[in-house]
Amino acid sequence: MNDTHTPHIPVAIVGGGQAGLSVAYNLYKKGIECVVFERNEKFHSWRVNRWDSFCLVTPNWQCRLPDFHYDKEFGGTDPDGFMLRDEITDYLDAFTATFEPNLHEHVAVTRVVHLPKGGYVVETSIGTWTCDQVVIATGGYDNPIEPAYAQALDPTIVQMHSVDYRNPSQLPDGDVLIVGTGQSGVQIMEDFVRAGRGVHLAVGPAPRSPRKYRGRDATDWLHDAGHYEITIDTHPDPFKALTQTNHYMSGRDGGKEIDLRQWHVDHGVELYGSLADMDGHTLKFLPDLKQNLDDADRSYVGIRDQIDAYIARNGIDAPEEPPFTKVWEPAEERSELNAKAAGISSVLWAIGFRPDYDWIEVDVFDARGKPKFKRGVTDVPGFHFIGLGWLNTWGSGRFLGIEEDSTYLAEQIALQLQSAGKRAVA
Question: Per the domain annotation, does 41 fall within a domain?
Fold first, then answer.
């Protein structure tokens, strides 16, 4: 396949977000030549696919790109704050300026094929490359999830997915039904409340977390306690870790926790169980509102208990907190609602995404289509993943763990190239 018309590169990286460019940086340090293909522009998901009021949920000190920490090399002055969308892209752009990645923006990778004798063919919208190693850094947010029954909703009710949401003015006057209570759903809920809009919220099984607790941000306590050093191999419940939705809380206004019961009491947010079906103006919900609220609170209290135990073990002097109490309980489980009668003019889907790996012709997936790897390294020589949740630790797929993950993967790539006797240095 490789001839004078097909360029060859030791390493091809698919995806120009923080994960792919962090690997490129570590390969650059080792003198290993690589090319990065990005179908949009670098950091597109941060630059474009975030709403106007978006900010980090984790504190700025957790932004630790390779050799470019927020409060060190970047010179950030608010480590305990939460960067806004444009501040995040400023940080990312400053990182990229520290080296010169061979980055091809607005280039789609359409096919990756494993060659019988080793190596890969990478087909793109601007031509074909061959390479010895491939890194998939596209993340897991390719296809927005909307259930099939969404097509049965009356067409006069506007539907939008969170990936397209920027601010409440995009949607027509009237109430909004937000489906999903992960980090996106609850933060978009606040956007609409602040805009004076009526909000109906289909509450899913997402857990929640304290924000400030016993004098510090909860993530500070968990970091000191070693929680973020737990690997997926040593996790007491790896299935739960891999499948559980992220805990919801907010970095807005300096950081706050989100108690949906309190939002119902204080702001009139109408709460329902999980959305189950749509037909015309009829919305149907599962009778699981109480269970989902209780489960979220159980997670919240569990994190507080974990922090309490760490403080007690280490004899730390920290202020006491009152015990958690529920401010509201649902009187009944509402299983059906007429959207028109309730004044609902729009539905906003915030129930996540699915990855798209259909363009990869390499035997690295299980029966469910999920990639199989050990810290990103698959059993197929030269094929790797980066930037996925729990690649190794909780911080994988987030700013906190990308330095460690990308450094490790670059080392494995260098070892594999050396073992195969490939020329990797530019």
Answer: yes
